[in-house]
Design goal:
Elements lengths: L19 E4 L38 E9 L6 H21 L5 E9 L7 H12 L3 E4 L3 H14 L3 E3 L14 E3 L4 H15 L5 E6 L2 H18 L5 E5 L7 H9 L4 E5 L3 H14 L8 E4 L8 H4 L2 H4 L3 E4 L8 H13 L8 H20 L9 H9 L3 E4 L2 E4 L13 E5 L5 E5 L2
Parallel strand pairs: 2-3, 2-4, 4-5, 5-6, 7-8, 7-9, 9-10
Antiparallel strand pairs: 1-3, 11-14, 12-13, 14-15
Helix pairs in contact: 1-10, 1-11, 2-3, 4-5, 11-12
Pfam families: Peripla_BP_6
Organism: Candidatus Copromonas faecavium
Protein name: ABC transporter substrate-binding protein
């Protein structure tokens, strides 16, 4: 079913209508688009193909409607502010550099509550009420799994701000994700712990979600098949757990050299770290504490003391790098746009790169009638072939067939006074 023929999946929504934010990109004279990190994003424009020539348009720029599904209420509302600041920062750079040639972008922010049960209503509003040409959003893989079929049916692209491998294992043809999967993160973390640090005994605690379980399964598989090792212990946890002493003692009995804490709630990580120091030894002097990308977020500064956090390592796409002009620009523009004036972290970087992904695809598509029934289809084709340099690294969606684009992650480490630095790969 084409986007223009999209039928209502739920009753009309009245409470969710949000004021749109129209942001305009300036035109540029170059034939190639320079993305956030200055990469070559050129590709054959579909408007140059004979079969599509009739759909090409010239003259005034056309408006591409972008639905942004993010938490705007509840305990995760801060992430909605981060989404908006990231998009504002990206559009500032795009406008200043004249990167968007043939289109302007209009953003409609819709509250998905940051919860799985909020995803269908948000997706319905974006597709049915707003009539989006493309959507950005959802911070949880379970939310993408719920709304993904709706975007498939409508043939409208969705740029997911998620890392769960299940998001790209469903065969969705209209989904791209804007970071590496948890599996890529897990492999990178093991490279650091086993190959770089030389550890052979690792313990793991993981959240009992699809993403957490998949990451733990993959870590066990890679350890066994690639390194001939086994975890000394593996335990699942819920978001309500408030004590990890039993799990810590199991790792202590197994003489673990490092603890992998793969969770969603940053405060739980601090509790686990305290349990280690109370029942076992000092972190990180005696036991290295590692986590998933949740450990990279700015929320760590709200739930951890700086002294506790120093030395904690994590796999992530984005790490601040003052030697990279594109990252410096991202930091400055984000802080200017953010209501709290904070430095950006991993999730804002994903959203920021998503905008450059879209701009790259639109430039590669060239002038095309946004009112055509197949506009979103043609746009999706270009999204799936886009290559550009973002603040997380080099994206090449043509290298995969499942909507992934980022194949290499990094390992970051928390330093003094809530600073971060890259420790792997050098």
């Amino acid at each position: 079913m084409m986007k223009k023929k999209w039928m209502k999946l739920l009753a009309p929504l009245t409470a969710m209508a949000m004021a749109g934010m129209a942001l305009t990109g300036c035109s540029g004279g170059a034939e190639e688009t320079t993305a956030a990190g200055g990469g070559d994003t050129s590709a054959a424009s579909s408007s140059e193909e004979g079969e599509d020539a009739g759909e090409a348009v010239t003259g005034e720029k056309q408006v591409v409607k972008v639905g942004v599904m993010c938490p705007m209420s509840g305990t995760s509302a801060r992430f909605g502010e981060l989404y908006q600041a990231s998009i504002d920062a990206a559009m500032k750079a795009i406008e200043e550099d004249g990167l968007l040639k043939d289109y302007t972008l209009e953003f409609e922010y819709v509250d998905d509550k940051g919860a799985t049960d909020g995803a269908p209503a948000a997706a319905t509003y974006v597709l049915d009420q707003y009539g989006a040409d493309i959507a950005i959003g959802h911070m949880l893989t379970t939310m993408v799994l719920v709304s993904g079929p709706m975007f498939e049916e409508a043939q409208v692209p969705l740029l997911g701000i998620v890392s769960g491998p299940a998001s790209v294992s469903q065969g969705f043809e209209y989904l791209c994700i804007e970071t590496g999967t948890d599996l890529i993160q897990a492999e990178t973390l093991l490279q650091y712990l086993v190959e770089e640090k030389g550890y052979e005994r690792l313990g793991m605690i993981h959240i009992n979600t699809e993403g957490g379980s998949s990451a733990a399964d993959h870590i066990e598989k890679v350890m066994k098949e690639k390194y001939g090792l086994e975890l000394v212990s593996r335990d699942a946890m819920t978001t309500e757990d408030t004590d990890f002493t039993a799990q810590v003692l199991k790792m202590k009995d197994g003489d673990a050299q490092a603890v992998i804490f793969w969770g969603l709630n940053q405060s739980q990580g601090n509790v686990c770290m305290k349990n280690i120091e109370q029942s076992w030894g000092k972190v990180p002097e005696e036991i290295l504490f590692a986590g998933g990308t949740s450990m990279a977020q700015n929320q760590m500064t709200e739930t951890w003391d700086a002294a506790d956090l120093e030395g904690v390592v994590f796999p992530v796409g984005y790490i601040p790098d003052e030697s990279n002009p594109a990252i410096v620009r991202f930091i400055e523009d984000f802080k200017e746009a953010d209501v709290l004036g904070q430095d950006p972290a991993d999730v804002p970087a994903r959203v920021y790169d998503a905008v450059f992904h879209l701009v790259t695809a639109l430039n590669n598509l060239g002038p095309y009638d946004v009112e055509a029934e197949d506009f979103s289809v043609k746009l999706n084709e270009q999204l799936r072939q886009a290559s550009f340099d973002g603040v997380q690294g080099h994206f090449d969606y043509s290298a995969f067939d499942n909507g992934e684009g980022l194949a290499q992650m990094s390992i970051g480490e928390w330093g003094p006074d809530y600073t971060q630095r890259k420790v792997y790969p050098q």
